[in-house]
Amino acid sequence: MLYSYQNSNGFLHRDTVKMIWTPVPNTNHASDKDGKYGMGWGVILSQNNYPFYNGEWVDLLTHHREPVRDPVAIRGAGNVTVFGLSNRFDTEFPSALTGKVAPEEFSETLQRINSVLKKTLPVNVKWLFCGCICCCCTLGCSLWPVVCLSKRTRHALEKLLDWENSHLYSKLGLHWRLSKQRCDSSAMVEYVLLIEFVPRLQIHRPD
Question: Which domain covers residue 32, as residue numbers?
Fold first, then answer.
């Protein structure tokens, strides 16, 4: 329970913050005639209005932070992986996104992502096969085309994710991005889709 002399939110004395859920002695302020402000928090409207508080002040609205949930990771589910990038991502709807986005919209996003991978990964595999055959003769230079193609595929995915974020997911408090993580079963690195939960802005905070 928050008690305020002005019946308004404002600033909180740092000593009072330490006494949360602890009864506070009755104040000596003139407005506290019946002692009803003696229990709980003493919320002060401003430091100038109540100069008898000489300590540090804490802005309640500034220090309030909404807990951020852990991001949802969508791993590759394909049968071919080139430089850590799978040719298909898992399309199963995560339970952590229930109530945040419709399963149909999530499925459409994954279909567009897998469509990009379906077009680019087979070409990358062919260049990787050719590069490995000629690797000894070219001293490794034959692998440069597949490296550039893999980088181009990642840029295409990042561009698609930026479009998805700007058109839909930023309004829902979500953010998609491509991230590099270690595999659970080995020390190898793979690319996964991370869906991060964006904290809400404090639009009701006064200027």
Answer: 2-63
pLDDT tens across 176-185, in order? Answer: 999 998 887 7
| CA separation for the pair 102, 56 (Å, rounded) | 47
Task: Determine the residue type at 146.
Answer: V
The overall pTM is greater than 0.85? no
Tell me how many domains the chain contains.
2
48 and 76 housed in the same domain: no
Distance, CA of 50 to chain centre: 40
pLDDT band at 69 (very low <50, low <70, confident <90, very high): confident
Residue 42 zone, left/alpha/beta (φ > 0; ψ -120 to 50; rest): beta
- Structure-token pair, residue 3: 């008690």
Residues 120 and 188 in one domain: yes
DSSP code of residue 165: I
